[in-house]
Automatic annotation (TrEMBL):
Keyword annotations from UniProtKB, A to Z: Carbohydrate metabolism, Cellulose degradation, Glycoprotein, Glycosidase, Hydrolase, Polysaccharide degradation, Secreted, Signal
Identification of the protein by name: Endoglucanase
Leader peptide range in chain numbering: 1-20
Subcellular location: Secreted
Membership in a protein family: Belongs to the glycosyl hydrolase 9 (cellulase E) family.
Active site: 409, 461, 470
GO molecular-function terms, A-Z: carbohydrate binding; cellulase activity
Organism: Nicotiana attenuata
């Protein structure tokens, strides 16, 4: 049994290489629309998401400061400073790595607009060197109400950190965001870039001099964005970005002197996100080392790099402590908004792949050396899963593909646009009328990446299922870089290291087995039934260890005028894993997220094995 399981995971590991055909450019364009839907404040004349209106126009007024603008973090109407700053950092990093590719797609302007919308707000939130506003609104009162942003009646109190109420993690992340963004704008708007860099210097000094966790000062954030990892990682993260932005040796030496004390050389992580930055800073330091700029810090930076490579190996399943994956191959960290970890890991894998390629190096894992292309293939597999190559054939980007979430946990998208119906939506009335409504959202939240499936690839598209259907700005921020990279193919690498031209012909990713072209789709007949039809087709194949594996897609369609319930399918001559149905004794029944098949509707299940198609037939069902 153990050998079969190992073989199964090996097959799943190469499975994404057999898929093809996603429009990464389209997904990239739609990602930026999501940021326009998340805007707070006075919307600009070139706003493309027309169902949104102005909101939060008195933010900061009660505290005597202008805090209008910025982004709502997710499906609520609060502006949380820590995840917002992380979002800006990652958008900036995506541009710095793959800005040329974004420009080729016509999206660089939208990317820079998205960053500037955030940094304009962060500049307002930093009115004095040692004062930073880290939240507007509070989750408790906000979550009590279900209102579109334009109708908010909830508290808009502003919360800050200062020397008596420190927040090194918040100040450090905001310093990183401003430093990274300053590089983005250096060529296009040098005055603005200098302003951002000056604020970044001040914020780093504030973070380092007055140390403390921000959620001990802004306690209303604890329930929503608690800083579990503390502030040590943000201090290193900020120093790395300030070195890149300023080339000031002080910050490189800070990384060298404090690598051990602040955990940069000690923590070996399997996650990267708005709270835990170690894998990110380790990747940045590795790039400094590989570019030959580490100087006397090289011995310490090598220990950073070892931890960075541990992260990469864990994503590939080739480390001593590997990231958990779903049966369908998705990185899995937690049920609540797991997709944030998927997109961030994919981004780090993409940039590290390019760093290695540019430096002519390989990744060293406990199982041996790994080519850079294998890291990029991993990132592609995760993105393809997000866009629909998964056991449910569901796109977890709203508006991409034909099967995507329709009941997103998001106040603005779930309530009729104020431009369509300006009738005021009350605090609790929104729950009664719109939250509980079992229908598609009236406003399409195009480009949003929702929380995603559970550990078994299951997903329920329901508005109250906030763990799986709520989007977040920091889900998309790393993804835009990977999408730009994949859309460009092998036409160029990153902008932070000297570019090594790709050989001709275009190289293929280095899989663990030889990938063969997908066979021509063919329809495979199955036993007929008057009410339930089943069609199968082989969608792809690949060779591995002397065997040819086939991926089959089966579509079950209700041809009757009634709803099919209690469906049981008999499947014989099945020799591999199957997704999209539930095993029940000797039969297969509806998956956990579905209990019926309405008239004219279809469901899909997929399976993989090395033989001809399995024999699928209808055992029983009822019509109601």
């Amino acid at each position: 049994m153990k050998s079969f399981i190992c073989c199964l995971f090996l097959v799943i590991g190469v499975l994404p290489l057999a898929f093809a055909g996603h429009n990464y450019g389209e997904a990239l364009s739609k990602s930026f629309l999501f940021y326009e839907a998340q805007r707070s404040g006075y919307l600009p004349h070139n706003q493309r998401v027309h169902w949104r209106g102005n909101s939060g126009l008195n933010d900061g007024k009660a505290s005597g400061i202008d805090l209008v603008g910025g982004y709502y973090d997710a499906g609520d109407n609060v502006k949380f400073g820590l995840p917002m700053a992380f979002t800006i950092t990652m958008m900036s990093w995506s541009i710095l790595e793959y800005g040329r590719q974004m420009a080729a797609s016509g999206e660089l302007g939208h990317a820079m607009d998205a960053v500037k919308w955030g940094t304009d707000y962060l500049l307002k939130a930093h009115p004095e060197p040692y004062v930073l506003y880290g939240e507007v609104g509070d989750g408790n009162t906000d979550h009590y109400c279900w209102q579109r942003p334009e109708d908010m009646t909830t508290s808009r109190a502003a919360y800050r950190i200062d020397p008596n109420h420190p927040g090194s993690d918040l100040a450090g992340e905001t310093a990183a965001a401003m430093a990274a963004a300053s590089i983005v704008f250096r060529r296009y708007n040098p005055g603005y870039a200098n302003e951002l860099l000056n604020h970044a210097h001040q914020l780093f000094e504030f973070a380092d001099k007055y140390r403390g966790k921000y959620d001990s000062s802004i306690t209303v954030a604890q329930k929503y964005y608690r800083s579990v990892s503390g502030y040590a990682d943000e201090l290193l993260w900020a120093a790395a970005w300030l070195y890149k932005a300023s080339n000031n040796q002080f910050y490189m030496n800070y990384l060298g002197r404090n690598g051990d004390a602040l955990g940069g050389t000690g923590w070996s992580m399997t996650e990267f996100g708005w709270d835990v930055k170690y894998a990110g800073v380790q990747t940045l330091v590795s790039q400094i080392l590989m570019s030959g700029k580490a100087g006397h810090n090289a011995p310490v930076f090598e220990r950073y790099q070892q931890k960075a490579e541990n992260f990469m190996c864990s994503c590939l399943g080739k480390g001593n402590r590997n990231a958990q994956k779903t049966p369908g191959g998705l990185i899995f960290r937690q049920r609540w908004n797991n997709m944030q970890f998927v997109t961030s890991a994919s981004f780090l894998a993409s940039v590290y792949s390019d760093y290695l390629t540019s430096a002519g190096k390989y990744l060293k894992c406990s199982s041996g050396y790994v080519s850079p292309n294998e890291l990029l293939s991993f990132a592609k597999s995760q993105v393809d899963y997000i866009l629909g190559d998964n056991p449910r054939a569901t796109s977890y980007m709203v508006g991409y593909g034909s099967n995507y979430p329709r009941q997103v946990h998001h106040r603005g998208s779930s309530i009729v646009s104020i431009k369509v119906n300006p009738t005021f939506v009350t605090c609790r009335g929104g729950y009664a009328t719109w939250y509980s409504r079992k229908a598609s959202d009236p406003n399409l939240l195009t480009g949003a990446i929702v929380g995603g499936p559970d550990a078994y690839d299951n997903f329920a598209d329901e508005r109250d299922n906030y763990e799986q259907t709520e989007p977040a700005t920091y889900n998309n921020a790393p993804l835009i870089g990977v999408l730009a990279r994949l859309h460009a193919g092998h036409s160029g690498y990153n902008q932070l290291l000297p570019v090594v031209p790709a050989p001709k012909p275009v190289p293929k990713p280095a899989p663990r087995g030889k990938v063969t072209p997908a066979p021509r789709p063919r329809v495979i007949p199955v036993p007929a039934n008057a009410h339930v039809a089943i069609q199968q087709r082989a969608t792809s194949s690949w060779a591995l260890n002397g065997k040819t594996y086939y991926r089959y897609s089966a579509i079950v369609t209700n041809k009757s005028a009634k709803t099919v319930k209690n469906l049981k399918l008999a499947i014989s001559k099945l020799y591999g894993p199957l997704w999209g149905l539930t095993k029940y004794g000797d039969s297969f029944i509806f998956p956990a997220w579905q209990n019926s098949l309405p008239a004219g509707k279809s469901l899909e299940f997929v399976y993989i094995h090395t033989a001809s198609p399995a024999i699928v037939s209808v055992s029983s069902y009822t019509l109601v």
